[in-house]
Amino acid sequence: MNDKRSQTIETLKVIAHQWRQPLNLISMEAINLNVQASLEEQVDSKKVLESTKRIEEQVQRMSIILKSILHLGSSESHKRLFSLNKLFDSIYDDFTKASKNKTIELQISCMEEDIQVYGFSSDLHEVLLNLLNNAADAYKEQSKDNKTIFLESSCNDKNCTIKVRDNAGGIPEAIADMVFEQNFSTKITGEGFGIGLYIAKLLIETEFEGSINFNTTPEGTEFIITLPRKDICTLKFVH
């Protein structure tokens, strides 16, 4: 009972920490709208729409974070096999339709064999999309004409490996050891969106029983996710 209570408390602490920034941003936007309504005879509808859009984005962010964290405590019976190739197709669509990514090429390299991964597809989707968006943000500081991000998968009999690689300059040595810490972010307040690297690491290690690491050089960064391969014949059925 004490173990379950401690786990619940730790989960609530993670949620509270991850929600702090979006809640602060929502509060700031609400105050801004209130000030505009109080001081201006005619409120600028464009400003109101911009504020409400930012509020909606933060609410969506909170929803994604909550769903991912709650999945950490889900039983095996709720997990499912899902297609890695179909997941990559979905990620490609989501990444390329974002306006900020129009100048960036996403190259995907999949195995011909459609590998099945075990867990929550939505969580792996968020982890990979977060890595891709981080790479896209890194290209903002670059004047390169060729801005390409590579998403690749490979498998052997035991593991599946997923790599996200860019040529946008490496992670500075001073912060490289902190990228998976709960308090760490390179984003300006209000720009961060999604689950972040801290929760990404929790999901990969806890839900998928895998690992996530990275290699970085002055030329670029490569994140490497390793997942144990679990097809139908190797799954343990939960009763």
UniProtKB/TrEMBL annotation:
The enzyme's E.C. designation: 2.7.13.3
Organism lineage: Bacteria, Pseudomonadati, Campylobacterota, Epsilonproteobacteria, Campylobacterales
Keyword Nucleotide-binding attached: yes
Protein name in UniProt: histidine kinase
Keywords: ATP-binding, Kinase, Nucleotide-binding, Phosphoprotein, Transferase, Two-component regulatory system
Annotated PROSITE patterns: HIS_KIN
SUPFAM superfamilies: ATPase domain of HSP90 chaperone/DNA topoisomerase II/histidine kinase, Homodimeric domain of signal transducing histidine kinase
Origin species: Sulfurimonas marina
Reaction catalyzed: ATP + protein L-histidine = ADP + protein N-phospho-L-histidine
